[in-house]
Design a protein that fits this description.
Blueprint: E1 7-9, H1 18-21, E2 24-27, H2 30-39, E3 42-44, E4 50-51, E5 57-61, E6 68-77, E7 81-86, E8 91-97, E9 107-108, E10 114-115, H3 116-120, E11 124-125, E12 130-132, E13 142-143, E14 149-158, E15 173-176, E16 183-186, H4 192-201
Parallel strand pairs: 3-16, 12-13
Antiparallel strand pairs: 1-2, 2-5, 4-12, 5-11, 6-9, 6-10, 6-14, 7-8, 14-15, 14-16
Length: about 220
């Protein structure tokens, strides 16, 4: 899938049910994501959980307005490597093999399930999603390993209430991902240019423009 596109259609649409085959997803704040991606996006993970910035937001079209859908996200490792940041060269270097994968979780959008008409009328924002490095987290946050690279994935699932619908479950969903949303999970920002861009572009970071950026 071409993750560099501003919007994406459902792949393998000929294998999908009509309720999902025509869906298109557009990444919001695309230019901001690209700015971060050019520097090497970093996302803070904490024991208590930290929200993403930029927030993952999309606009959806092509749904059946009357059908019900569940929207969810997950995060998959980009590779099997662990990284470290080399300050003298301002670059990420491979530090070894990846740590044991954190427990895989899905984050369901809190408005799920909802009809297509509702999802399509406004931007869908995953602003309640939090990232943690606590392997024992019991708050439903997304568990990630620090110093590992991740790809966010977005899934649209048609709620099929027909008997035995589970037999055709693979036909009832479409998955989307945008390469420019990849990021390195960190416990503290490594690249000072990422810190500066986060402070400059995050409206909730105004109070930190004169304080330690690691506090937010």
């Amino acid at each position: 899938m071409d993750g560099a596109q501003l919007s994406q259609s459902c792949k393998l649409s000929s294998l999908k049910v009509p309720q999902v085959s025509g869906i298109r997803v557009q990444l919001e704040m695309h230019s901001l994501w690209q700015q971060f991606d050019q520097l090497g996006t970093e996302m803070i993970v904490t024991k208590a959980g930290r929200r993403m910035f930029p927030t993952f937001q999309v606009r959806i079209s092509g749904m059946d307005p009357a059908a019900e859908y569940v929207l969810l996200m997950d995060f998959i490792p980009v590779d099997d490597k662990r990284y470290r940041y080399a300050f003298h060269s301002s670059s990420w270097l491979v530090a070894g093999r990846a740590d044991v994968a954190a427990p895989s979780r899905m984050h369901f959008h809190p408005d799920s399930p909802a009809r297509g008409a509702q999802w399509m009328k406004q931007t869908v924002s995953f602003d309640t999603l939090k990232l943690t490095n606590n392997l024992l987290d019991d708050n439903g946050h997304m568990i990630l390993n620090s110093m590992h690279r991740y790809q966010p994935r977005f899934h649209v699932v048609y709620v099929d209430r027909a008997p035995n619908s589970h037999l055709n479950a693979y036909r009832n969903f479409c998955s989307f991902y945008f390469l420019e949303t990849q990021f390195m999970a960190v416990t503290a920002y490594q690249n000072h240019r990422i810190t500066q861009l986060k402070i400059a572009s995050n409206p909730f970071a105004k109070g930190f423009r004169t304080t330690d950026p690691q506090d937010w």
